[in-house]
Amino acid sequence: MILLDGKKTSQDIKNEIKAKVDVMKAKGEKVPHLAAILVGNDGASLTYVGSKVKACQQVGFESTLIKMPSTTSELELLSKITELNENNDIDGYIVQLPLPKQINTRRVLMQVNPDKDVDGFHPTNFGKMALDMSSFIPATPFGILELIERYGVETDGKHTVIIGRSHIVGRPMSILMGRKGFPGNSTVTLTHSHTKNITQITSQADIIISALGVPNYLKAEMVKDDAVVIDVGITRVPDETRPRGYRITGDVDFENVSKKCSFITPVPGGVGPMTIAMLLKNTLLAREQHKNKTY
Question: pTM of the entire structure?
Answer without folding.
Answer: 0.93
